[in-house]
Amino acid sequence: MSAIACLHLSRRPLRKAGQRGTTLIEILISVVILLVALLGAAGMMVRSNQSEMESYQRVQALTLLQDMAARLNANRQVATCYAVSGATTTVGTGGTSAPSCATGTAAQQATVTADLAAWNSALLGNAETAASGTVAFGAMIGARGCIEAVDTVNQIYRLTVAWQGLVQTVAPSLPCGSGSFGNDAYRRAISVQVRMGVLS
Fold first, then answer.
1. Around 172, how many Cα atoms within 13 Å sit in the side-chain half-sphere?
2. Reduced DSSP (H G I as helix, E B as strand, rest coil) percent helix, strand, coil of the chain, to 5
3. In sequence order, what DSSP letters do the residues of 164-176 get, joined into one string?
4. Closest CA to 103 of 121, 71, 77
5. Across-strand partners of 162?
6. What percentage of residues in the chain have a pLDDT greater than 90?
7. Of the N and C termini of the chain, which has fewer Cβ atoms inside 10 Å?
8. pTM beyond 0.85
9. Rounded distance, CA 199 to CA 28, Å?
């Protein structure tokens, strides 16, 4: 063997026995790290979707509160037809319970009935349906609306919208929809107090 051939052989790096298979182990570790990262990203996406849905439901509830407050103000002469002292008018999921109305004109009473029916329909999501037109999906989960007469002398009424959230939180102190969603920690509720102006 010539000296040049020996020189080439001596320059070849020698592979140690402990280095065999390191490529496979490195690939496995990389795959595990990638899977952990993907699981974390999937968890973040789920939480993001839940937050987005909770936010959407809250916006829907605020819109429905404003709608009913406007209807109540527009028909303020017979506000007691919407709710009487000591009783709560409820609409939406679970059915409708409204007081019988004997005050005002027939047209005003008809407006009260139409307002409650429209609010009930909106709480049930009937304004937005699937392509078939049979499945309503436009409102919050299990939406329920409540009207309470806080002070009939000063004409103060509390409007509340309650619905079912996706995750547990602190149960709201508002009574609307209490016990309707199993664990009360899933219940969400927002309210507004409406005071009727006295127009002279």
1. 20
2. 45, 15, 35
3. E-SS--PPPS--T
4. 77
5. 144, 189
6. 39
7. C
8. no
9. 77
State pLDDT tens for residues 58-87.
999 999 999 999 999 999 889 889 988 888
CA distance 70 to 68: 5
d(CA 179, CA 23): 59
Contact 101, 78 (CB under 8 A): yes
pLDDT digits (tens, 9 = 90+) for 18-66: 555 568 888 889 999 999 999 988 888 888 888 888 888 899 999 999 9
Strands 187-195 and 144-151: unpaired
Per the structure block, which two tokens stand in for 57? 């439901």
- In which region does residue 176 sit, left (phi positive, over 0), alpha (psi from -120 to 50) or beta (all else)? beta
Residue linked to tokens 């790096």: 13
**Residue 173 φ/ψ, nearest 5 degrees:** -80, -15
Label residues 71-101 b or e (16+ Cβ within 10 Å = b): bbeebbebbbbbbbeeebbbbbbeeeebbeb
CA distance 84 to 82: 7
Of 90, 116, 115, 112, the residue nearest 101 (C-alpha)? 112
* Phi-psi label, residue 155: left if phi above 0, alpha if psi -120 to 50, beta otherwise: left
